[in-house]
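Quick start: what a row looks like.
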Amino acid sequence: MDGQRLTLESLTADGPTVLIFFRFAGCPACNIAIPYYERELAPALRALGARLVAVSPQIPERLVEIKRRHDLSFEVATDRNAVLSRRFGILYTANATTQAKGNFIGDVTGTGTWELPQPTVVVIGADRVVRFADVSPDWLVRTEAGPIIEAVRAALPVAAQ
């Protein structure tokens, strides 16, 4: 959100990274999940030397709201044009019924499309290999902290576990 470009190399330079994909700053379920991850996941990951980044296709100017609202200690990044979400295959397009109701989601996110990422967690090891991925087809269901922490532990060198 601060204009810095995140790369796989920079994200994994010092250890594993956890990417939490969410829909947008005003999403009700996201505003329950993100503070949960702040309380239950962020401290454990810091202790393990892992990085946590929340990722949304929403434009940075609108995405900053969720970081401020919840005083997040971890990074929040925009996935411009949903490029990474598309590469991971986690995007969905709102169905015709949702589209007919109005409230164009592209106006909310600033992307100009009906596409959003499914709630997803990806753990990437320092070796840049995906070690864990959990994708929920239900926008209300999110991955619990425990399995994420275990996946990060498994991605650490034996001496660090």
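That is the whole record. The chain has one domain: 14-119+150-160. The two ends are 32 Å apart (CA to CA).
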